[in-house]
Design a protein that fits this description.
The complex is a heterodimer of chains A (about 600) and B (about 230). Chain A is an alpha+beta fold and about 600 residues long. In chain A, about 40% of the residues lie in helices and about 15% in strands. Chain B is about 40% helix and about 15% strand. The chains are: A alpha+beta (about 600), B alpha/beta (about 230).
Amino acid sequence: MNMKKTLRLYMALLAILICILTASGCSKSSTAAQQETISEVAEVASPVPEEKEKETFEFEGDTFKTGAVGRNGAAACASPIAAKVATDIMAKGGNAVDAAVGMIYAVGLLEPAATGIGGAGQMVIYLASEDRYVNIEYMTQAPKAAVTGALDTSTSENPPSVEALAIPGVVYGTLTALEEYGTMTAAEVLQPVIDLARNGFPVTERWNANIEGRYANLSAYDYTLGLYTDDGFLWNEGDMITNNDLADTLEMIATEGIKGFYDSDYTQKMVDYIQSIGGVLTREDFAQYRSVEREPISTTYRGYTVYTTTGPSNGGAPLLEMLNIAENFDLASYGADSPETVEILSDAFALAYQDGVAFIADPDYYDIPVDTMISKEYGQERAKSIEVGSRIKTARAGRLTISLSETGKKVLSANTPDQGGTSHMVCADSMGNVVSTTNTNGINFGSAVAVPGTGFVFNAHLANLNNMESARANQMMPYIKVRSTTCPVIVAGSTGKPVLAVGSPGNWALVSAALNAVVNYIDFDMNCAEAALAPRFWRDGISKDLYIEARYSASTLEALKGMGFELMESDKDYGAHVGCVAAVEIGEDGLIYAIGDDRRHYGASAY
Amino acid sequence: MKKIIVVLLAIALLIGFGSCSKAATPAAAAPAANTPSTGTVDSEYDPNATVDFEMKTSADKRVVTIGEIDKSLYQSPIFVTSFGQSTDAAMLDTVMKRVGIDYHYNPTATADDIAGSKTVIIAVGASTKGLGAAGISEADETARAKAIMKQIKADGSQVICCHIGGSSRRGALSDELADMVMKQCSYIVLKEDANFDSKFTDFASAHNIPISLIFATKDTVSVFTDIFK
């Protein structure tokens, strides 16, 4: 080989190395195996700096590989792609609030049945720099026309009544959270979601299952059906689809902010369409909407402090009441897989459920007895009606009172005529900030009403209000915030700093899922993955129907039957009917663990 | 030597561009299937993991028909019903509307309802949720299906078996209902990913029944337009 040839060969080999190394730079999501190969090559090519090797961590209990562990940030939610949006935002310097807001919009794109900008939500935030817990409530709100008995708010028909649409809160609440506690602009956190919406995202099994479940509703509106299906039919799983209309809407929100959605030509376009099909929302309704920053409510539980949402969430206070009741029993001695633990928790659930239904509503319209409901004394009193080994057959609400507030009285006196779809998300950053947020359309795809050109569906949340004059609580009236069980949770350890953020979708099952997860974590010393995936149950209100998973031991299931429980769907190892947990755990080892529950194919991301 | 260098360069370029183009798609944001369960990684997600047999249809070749269809067999009145109460029946209803012909639709039709129909199109596929929503037990649905097939036999009606929900419509009850319909049908329309074990094509071949394999549910529209228009 002469000199010239040798030189040409070396040049060629160098070019090959450059090509391969370029590939490593392009492919962010290369597998670990690919990265190992690339790193080996990099060692040979000395002029190119060696890529920092990724750390790997054990994650015990991550049965379905739906978890992730990182040092700098972690997120979990209904879609691993949306969780990645969150961690990418944190990797670019955003904090957990920035990441949570990006994730909320990403889940709205990727799981539109459960949540989206036509819906509502609640967010509990831990702000590390202030060592403070905050609750941003952005539940839907009744329109001015929502006089008791004046509207048909039924959601039992296909499609739900268009008069059941409530004023959505997601845009107001998320942009407020960003403005108050984030570090990035709306444009920055929305851009990755806009890119996903325009460039495409894969159809999942759950996407199709959600469409199937509400096909009749969606079929009522050509635009809505076209938005989520292949010209009226199911996509094939794995097909890449887009939502350019939603991308346009998000771009508008990114530039025009809250006003762009709530008081602009865009608002008028939404109102005009909704009214043209019989809805009652007006531009004035949108313009007066406000999210509210509230004090989170809390109770202690075996040395931990559990923070969640007050009214209009009727899941938060009952959850704390359940924990206060459960604290009177030594669950650890019974074990997680025992009839005693299941019975105690399901009885506690039934008792607190009754209080949640009877005594919680919008705290601006009612004086609600939350302080009593979540007190230790009340928990002890309620616990007395639980007899271990014999389920409560008739759970009654406690002797509490709820009354109209001055605002509520004023509004009512001027009362003149004028399955679930929920999704939970969590994230934590390296600065110690933690966000737990539950967002909801009410029922899957809400009202199924999507204003042509906007790319999202409106909720049908007014169905959650009592539409009768005789209602004791939560009565339909103009501008009342709509009640929902959404109760994102953050658990603080003995130092007062968060150790776990957790929550679930699932109507009342979401409260039970959060209860199970918190008890699993605290009483049974499980990590967040184990706590999320352990077998669990949900009692259907106060009835004897106990939805329970098959992974409980035969002896536990038999004993529960012996107590008179009717075991429902007990042939499934993992059932979506018991909720679906997303959780992050801030480990003592300095790592952040995130888990997405496989029951609804949730996912996680960390870095 | 030159040739070797050119080949090596080409391979390297292919590796390079291949990885780049993967990273440019949103799907690449989702981690690959063989990502380890531990470490600073994201949850697994493989949207293409369901189909691992060689399909005859594709995004470019959306319908593949095996056998000769005698279109003259399918006369009015046409009745569309469901065996299994999945959403496939509602989709079939949408298909027929798009085709634009007269038909009767009742997913919970009785044998009496379909009596006199010359063509009965049956959307086969069981859904627990669908059965629950319709308030029908599995046993009742099976009994209804048997009664309808008996009526069809008595009337000498033509039956088109529509299995258009794909692999998610495979299971004990779905297969039982499909077997019941296929035994009496003269034509099968099948979303091909449900044929991962060749169940349907083997049956069609063994009984000389024409079968149209479709790539996606919406391709039923072109298949039925061809049959009925």
